Amino acid sequence: MRAAWAILAGLAVGGGLAWWLTRGEAAPSPEARERAEQAAAEAAEDALRPLYRWRDDAGNLHITDTPPPPGRAYERLAREPEPGIRVKTGG
Question: Where is 39: in which H helix or E strand?
């Protein structure tokens, strides 16, 4: 009989603990929500910035998120890869 009470007490304590840990959190303040939205917008903007590929006078390859010095030849690269798989054939 003692084992049954111990099991019942364990279930009650476990159920109470589960309820306590999973109860709903308070809604975030409007200021916190605005800051989160602003941070998400900035992160999305950063993800869309192009990369620049260029070589310096010594021939070293640079890939940066800022344009190279004026007068330097460069190539703009999209950060998002093109959709699909490109297959090179022999040749």
Answer: helix 30-48
d(CA 75, CA 51): 8
Indicate the length of the chain as a whole number. Answer: 91
Give the mean pLDDT of the chain.
84
Tokens of 6: 């111990």
Give the pLDDT confidence of 51-60 residue by residue, as tens digits. Answer: 899 999 999 9
- Distance from C-alpha of 87 to C-alpha of 15, rounded to nearest angstrom: 56
- Select from 43, 72, 36, 78 the least CA-distant residue to 57: 72
pTM for this model (two decimals): 0.41
